[in-house]
Amino acid sequence: MFYRETGQFKTTYAADQQLFPILQDRIALLLLLLVAFVAVPLMASEYWLTALLTPLLVFSLAAIGLNILTGYAGQLSLGSAAFMAVGAFAAYNLVLRVPAIPVLVSFVIAGVIAALVGIAFGLPSLRIKGFYLAVATLAAQFFIPWLLVKVSWFSNYSASGVITTRPIDVLGFVFDSPVRRYLLVLSIVSLFALLAKNMVRSRVGRAWMAVRDMDVAAEVVGIPIMRTKLTAFAVSSFYCGIAGALYAFAYLGSVEPDGFNLDLSFRILFMVIIGGVGSIMGSFLGAAFITLLPIFLDLLLTDVARGFNLQLAPGTTSMVQLLVFGALIIFFLIVEPQGLARLWQIAKEKLRLWPFPY
Amino acid sequence: MLDKFNMVISKFDVAAALVAGILVSLLAVFFNKTRIGRALRAVADDHQAALAVGIPLKQIWAIVWSVAGFVALVAGLMWGARNGVQFALTFVALKALPVLILGGFESIAGAIVGGLIVGASEKLAEVYLGGMVGGGIEGWFAYVMALLFLLVRPEGLFGEKHIDRV
Fold this sequence. Notes:
Chain A is an all-alpha fold. Helices cover 71% and strands 3% of the residues of chain A.
């Protein structure tokens, strides 16, 4: 009744091509942003901001990056954590060695460096695809952290390879409290999410989707395969690189190369799969699912155990949590193989017809 | 132990190699000669075509997964008895991927040859090249090798060449 496009006439090309053509969508997005920018910093506790929301946003950005590569361009990759590591270490070194550059600019440069590395490891995609490519990107996943550990220049000769970042400052304003860091990450992530949403419907994005759907057919209609695949790798790694820099600077504060392991890559891939392959919003939903669910399960299990007066061994709750988490992932994928974004899509279609669905 | 050739080989390794050999030949016979094996390969080639000629897809899936599980179980038993059982075993399983790719899909012989190549070359690389760059290259050498190999021959050593059709 309330959510439909009826009566919203577009009289200019600009209005016709806007990112969110339905008025209700725009209002909902504005409300969401308002809540995220104003209400959350006012209400959320420090724990929520540092342990839940900031990583959620950082992982969302990484998931958008992988979604561009896997969901839109159809190139399966298991190296996203490695590109995050490149971003984190590049930003660290830029901030350390070239203090003249503002921190945010060095994040962007770190993203560009990650993009270059991504292009280098994306080269095999020109010859191989699908499952083979996933194994080829594993090479990046194992090689890059090893390189970061071995060449101690990258970690400024710290003994264990751990880097500790300094607080972010922009024009003298220091982002030192959890709220400020959250707001910074939120602004960066919203900006890049909007950019991504715009990009995937542009000429570049449509070329990615054509290559994903059938590369030979795309080549026949004149889409340059090499350029398309490599731009997908570059943009994806750029996003992952920025996410890695934020992961180090705004979330953890100190990271080591081994933190960016295969586990993280798989986690980001799960976010994309569960959230919805080929959907920017799905990246957020997937990141929320993967980041928040284990914590809620943990709390729930502790409560249940207390309710039944069970004395659990220290490791048991985390084990049970892993079991339930894995079972839930499988359950969701069986119920809705196309991810949470598809559920939202279905809800929207139902909502358009509500309350007279015929 | 063998002292005759001045080599030290544990009995366990010989037994493991024997078991692996027997298992591989059984699998090869199973895939190439039996009715079920042919059905498996038909499903691998094209689900729908296999369904159309009357291959029960669900049964085949069940068989495939149980065979895969069984083979993995044997491999896990051998590895576990040799090097101990810990969570790091998942990384060993991951190394099966470059082996598979090097040898090529759809080929049992490829799996053996690929496995030998990956196993031998990563140890040799660690010993001879590892010293030059500071060691620890065992972790990624197999993947980089598979990557370089794929650039030259995307279908692996014994894999079937795929022709793209629109």
